[in-house]
Amino acid sequence: MKFFMKNNSQNKTGIIVLAAGNSSRLGRPKQLLKYKETTLLKNTILEALKVENSFVIVVTGSSHILIQKELNLSEIIFSFNPEWESGMSSSILKGISELLRLNPDCQQSIIAVCDQPYVTNSVFENLIDESKKTGKGIAASAYSETLGTPVLFHQKYFSELLELKGQEGAKKLIKKYIHDVVSVPFERGNIDIDTEEDYSKLIS
């Protein structure tokens, strides 16, 4: 996989897409729900791939064989999380570990999820731009009076991301280091797909 890393690799942004869950509330893999002539997960990945000077890691878990077969994209790096059932923290840990393996000098990473249908490359790029402009170490998407994914972390936070446990996610660090956070508006970022009702609303 080293061929992904070109000159100035430390300046690249690693975009980690979390896609390991088993969609228990939905009853089928949400990653593979049809959306925009593709799937929910592939839509997120294709938007991430548009971001200049970046590389994309997809963390899989439940249904990983099906997902990998369905995607069949050579431009992305798959990372299977065998401990996906233990919670989101294990997938973040897996993604950051893979990022550091591929690019030890990587200066920043964006953590994204696969079920925000309105995510675009502009959402990712706005996080990068605002972090650079403000000098803040965390750039978090703002919607519905909360801060969440996608969220950018400077490399100084990688060690703490690797220490998350169980159901803990990126929000723990956003709250802990709120003084170092810039909020970046993400219109309709509050819409995610957890149930059949959510999906019906999306495609109706």
TrEMBL record:
Q: Which domain of life is it from?
A: Bacteria
**Any coiled-coil ranges, and where?**
none
InterPro entries noted in UniProt: MobA-like_NTP_Trfase, Nucleotide-diphossugar_trans
In what residue span(s) does the MobA-like NTP transferase domain sit? Answer: 16-179
Q: For this UniProt entry, which segments traverse the membrane? A: none
**What is the name listed in the Swiss-Prot or TrEMBL entry for this protein?**
Nucleotidyltransferase family protein
- Provenance organism: Flavobacterium tagetis
